[in-house]
Amino acid sequence: MTKGSNATLPTLSEHVASVIVSLRWASPSGEGDADVSVLLLGPDGRVRSDADFYFYNNPVAADGSVQLLGKVAAEQGDEDRIGFDLTAVPDDVHRMVVAASRYEGASFGELEDVTLTLSDGTGEGLLRFAVDDVASVSALIFGELYRREGVWKFRAVGQGYAEGLAALATDFGVDIDDDAAPEHILDEGPADGEGPAADMGAGTPDGTTALAAVPSPRRSEEVTRAPRATARPRTAKKKITLPRAAAPSLAGNESWRRARLFPVSVLKSDRDRETRATSVLLSVMAQVPEFGRRLMAAFGAPAGRMETFAEVSLPHGDTPRRPDGVVRVERAGKLWTALVETKTNGNALKSDQVQAYMDIAARRGYEAVITLSNDVALEGSPLVDVKVDGRRKHKVGLWHLSWAEVAYQAQVLIRHEGVGNAAHAWLLQELLHYLQHENSGCHGFQNMGPAWVPVRNGIDDETLCHGDPRTLEVVESWERLIRQVSLGLGGELGRKVLPVQRGRRGGDPRERRQAQADRLCLEGRLQAELRIDGAPGVLSVGADLRTGKLRVSTDLPAPEQGYPLTWVKRLVRRLAEAPADLHVETLVDGDAVGPRGTLERLRPEPADLLPRADGARITGFRLSLFKGMGSGRGSAETGFIRSVDQAVQHFLSTVVVHLDHAPARRVAGREALVSG
């Protein structure tokens, strides 16, 4: 689409009762980001009330018409998804504006590939709008869904605001406190749970909620001012989170085992594990609406009454088929149905099974087939190959979930965002305990594949040939592992953790992976980057297959003011509790190599980090920890997968924690918001 053009949705697809709008952008530095928002407008072009403004602290409409589904990693940068149930939009809402805003003085001109895409309920892309001329704007309207004579249409807008989020919101009638000037909102940017963002939901006589001010953008650097007291949110419902520390046990001795809702001791076979895992997950989805909607909304399911079923028999030729589960959601008298096929313990999905379920779903008018396994799906590299009969009028979406993503969503809800009541929190806790038990078979990506050992041996004895297809298999397994590590960290921290994908603008993901495979043959190294929301820099993870070492590092930019000697002394003081074997390297302009050393050696003499060459300008510092690499291809105690996970966790808990003060306050603020 081009700026100003529009399209009628029903002419593009029959499955537009619900749609997913995705906002994408890429950052050359790997650190650029933006926050999405949605405004519901009445016939006068203004919000009916401040409650019609949806953003990161108010992500879901009570009627299910709007759901901010969160951020996922795309092949080039990030993708923020928003689900719209068009059948649930109130009659007096005429337009729904989709926007995003940057913070801390950043503009969209610093990002690349600023794009909106719109998909129907089956996941098929219908529209694409690449936004240009965004160099100086810090808030941007991508597009809008609007209704004409009962028919939903989409318009590509591409309008920017140099003044940022406050100006955009004010244009549509969102009230801003008199003492909350736009400059303050955009420049100060208090942490989540502080200031205007925390004052959402001011109580009104009719029990509804109102937004006291435009939410302040989220900070990603240390707050220099004194933190304000967190305001208690005046929300309609109190949300519950569970404490990390377990309550004191009343057990007579340590050998007693706590009774669990979902026991795992009786699981003896893979079939037992698949049946139990399916039943456990589907039952919790139906009983905890926040959890079920969060998992299914990304697949086009509306927000409605959900029922789940296990081991359903469906006719298919001479032999009935029994999918592992069925999910049905009712909304406004209409049914959305998905078939579920699960695998546990590293077992692979079978193409013939999935193909049969796709055929059944198409014949019966179901909307989706969802596969669930320990594997992680990659764009451009499907887990199963299925054929779609183009002659069929009804389309079926094929989606994949990993067990690691299920655990991540449960952890985010019960530890950070909160759920409706204590019983729901307890159910999610029992589900999480089950998924994380060693006998459940639901441990996520666990095996680097059959190509791992031959490739390692080929690199070690220098017999690996350029173009060997096994190197591409290893690169894909490495990417799956990094995505799973991101999910694990995100669940623990309560922040978005996303892999950074660098490559040619708009490039094919398969070409990018092939280039990585060629570098693996040449250099013997695997490399990845993670961006943690609020962390001081990008986290780099490298595996050198020649030396058998893992390296986890992060780069810190040099301060803009002050003296180099002051910088290095302050850095060493901040790392007082970091491991003694932490490597610190000074980064300088050009190709020159700066001084480096272990923290143990630098503590008495921080000045050793200063360049000895006259005129050498310090650009930053690189902090690195090294760890031996596991030899096995799996996640056993000596395996490669476990060694990568442990190395990242160790670096985060012993190094980054000393550099990252502001985000810790922000996470605490969010917990205060959801706990009331």
In short, what is this structure?
By secondary structure, this protein is an alpha+beta fold. It has 15 helices and 25 strands.
| Shape annotation | globular
- State the total count of DSSP E strands: 25
**CA distance, first residue to last residue:** 44 Å
Mean pLDDT over all positions: 81
- Put simply, the count of helices is 15
Tell me the fraction of residues in β-strands, as a range.
15-25%
Strand order of the largest sheet: 19-20-21-22-25-23-24
Sheet/helix structural class: alpha+beta
Share of helix, binned: 25-40%
Spans of 5+ residues with little confidence (pLDDT < 50)?
Answer: 178-236, 661-676
Rounded to an integer in angstroms, the radius of gyration calculated over CA atoms is 26 Å
Largest sheet: 7 strands, antiparallel
